[in-house]
Amino acid sequence: MISRSDNTLRQLLQALGDPLVDVVAAPRGLDGVVRDVVILDPEDDPEVRPGDVVLIIGVRGRAAVATVRAAARRGALAVAVKGRDEALEQTANDAGVALLSVRPDARWEQLESVARANVGADTDSETVGDLFSLAQTIAALTGGLVSIEDTASRVLAYSRSSDEVDELRRLSILGRQGPESYLAKLREWGVYRRLRESEAVERIDERPELGIRRRLAVGIHAGGQSLGTIWVQEGATPLTDQAERALLGAARVTALHLVRSRNNPAAPLRLRESLLEGLLDGHTTAAAVAANIGADARRAAGVVAFELTDEADRSTLELRRAELINVISVHAAAYRRAALVTTLRARIYALLPDLHAGDGMTTLAREIVAAARQHAGIAVRAAVGMAPDLSRTAGARREADRILDARLDVPVASINDVRAEVMVAELLGLLAEHEEIRDPRLTDLVAQDNKDILVPSVLAYLEALGDVRAAAQVLHIHPNTLRYRVRRAAEVAGMDLDDPKQRLITQLQLMLHRQG
Could you tell me the CA-to-CA distances from 172 to 129, 183, 511 in Å, in that order? Predict the structure, then answer.
């Protein structure tokens, strides 16, 4: 199957990273777009097309010269060979093809799997690609080096890092078994058994004599079945304080991805997204959702809406949104196993069912916003909506949307925190949409205030509740100057600022003008 991609060779190499390959030659640079990853045996006809990355198996070093030339003639973007050789490097430079040196102890099937995961568009590759993205998110949240393994201890995905890896991680990524003495200790200590039987996070001390650093590990489970393990190696800096909690949530999210790859590739994750979308829109019943996720429809639920605040081009925003979804999913799953996450239009929504009185939804939202900014460099704001039971989730979503629609300068809020600000923003929205409900005298005042001094003076006066000295201090002018400006504005507009209703209308309409 062809695995089309928009990834460049540079991006692929960054994903592969150490310890799989080294770049030996790149006569045309690393910015060419990778079309596909293909395996080529020198005894076969070279089925290579322009843009392919070719893995040459069966020969090493100088013996691969003829195959490299043949691949280059057919337009290969890069060739990967085991064994370095000057003649091979010269051939690649002369032919204009990038030459990648594969580590001698790396397995070809491991390299192919990782490479396809980062360029592929078919369903299996898509799932593995999601795992690589998730591994990178877990690494950011834990501060360590992450690998996701299946039940046979084969590495499915791992995080990229410039940090120093220990021998166990290096051998695992290469597709080789780690030091048997260390693995025997893990079995003796019951680590593998507990990882299979429980979702508790395991703490594993470092073993300097074996070159093994401290680790955390957690089992990946679906129901009573073990699906694999997530390992986090501590690097040069200690793991984060939230590493264990993040790892618990990561295991629950990873389980969905692994189930997806084993069964109908689109079903588990897409079904959960569809359930939440229907619930948020009011098209799916609470009972149906509760039955599918194992929640109690009678219990309270919370909806947290997230919105990116960065300004960037569309592709960059999509990338950041995908990273943000991973961060949200990990935190939400750690908080509630039955949590759901989906995207509707430009916003990401997390549903947290089965809440108790006093559960800190706002605290959770703050943790996610902080983690997104700190670990992924993503600026985001969040709003929390609460529902007394699952059937009122759509109302909680509307409540959260109202807060985000108000465009308030607060990173996280619930309606009780900002109700007045939200209602004012909504009133200003009505004024903006309906010119007929505005006072034309105030429109004239704005038009005649050429020097932009009367309108700011009236607004400051009204916002200070008529306290001339306080308003003058805000504007850095003398109180008498402010009194004159307010009187002048009243004369120009023909309005009576002693009338409470007129003051209210004036303040709202001038606030709308200030918003532009």
Answer: 18, 12, 62
